[in-house]
Automatic annotation (TrEMBL):
Organism of origin: Agromyces hippuratus
Domain Bacterial bifunctional deaminase-reductase C-terminal: 5-187
Protein name: Dihydrofolate reductase
Gene Ontology molecular function terms on file: 5-amino-6-(5-phosphoribosylamino)uracil reductase activity
Any coiled-coil regions, as ranges: none
Highest taxon of source: Bacteria
């Protein structure tokens, strides 16, 4: 069975995953939603944060993460290998290894076509592949996304980086398989791609 590409992301109620300059600190990191998410998606917690909080990761949800350069660069220079417990693929046509400070275990910086890389990864054995962001990469990989897990936060950004960057209009059908509303106001919804007819 081919493994899934899962777009798991926090999003404002007006559809932004970050502010205009990549800000994401408005998203709540406390509340009743956090325990559930840290348990179910422990593999998506940055390695240094999970270590500090004692969050166990076993690689059964995700064993690989893909992201664009801007998403990756949020942690620099503190975390040059933010998810070193996973195989990390960072896509950039303009950056080189010289732009990554220090050591960066399990990280591959590539200018390869993201669709080709993801298709190759899907054909390998393993757990799901996490699409961490950003919106431009999500648009490029839209046809490869098998599952969406959206953490909708009770915030209006008004502007910023959208969940999907503008692209060619082509409706894609997904089916809601789970939604949980938390007292924090965060609503987590999960969708799977409907098979093409």
């Amino acid at each position: 069975m081919m493994r899934e590409l899962v777009y798991y992301a926090a999003v404002s109620i007006d559809g932004y995953i970050a502010g205009p300059a990549g800000e994401f600190d408005a998203f709540p990191v406390e509340g009743d939603h956090m325990q559930h998410l840290n348990a179910r998606f422990a593999d998506a917690v940055p390695t240094h944060i999970a270590d500090a909080l004692g969050i166990e990761r076993d690689g059964t949800t995700f064993d690989t993460v893909v992201m664009g350069w801007n998403t990756y660069a949020v942690g620099l220079p503190v975390a040059p290998s933010p998810y070193r417990h996973l195989r990390q693929f960072v896509f950039s046509r303009t950056r080189s290894e010289a732009d990554i400070p220090g050591e960066h275990p399990n990280l591959t910086l590539t200018d390869e076509d993201p669709v080709a890389v993801v298709r190759r990864l899907k054909a390998e054995p393993g757990a799901s592949i996490w699409l961490c962001g950003g919106g431009a990469l999500a648009t490029v990989l839209a046809e490869e996304i098998d599952r969406l897990v959206l953490k909708r936060n009770p915030l209006l950004f008004g502007d910023g980086i959208p969940l999907f960057a503008p692209g060619a209009y082509r409706p894609r059908a997904f089916e809601e398989v789970a939604t949980t509303a938390y007292e924090s106001g965060v609503v987590v919804s999960e969708y799977v791609r409907r098979p093409s007819i």
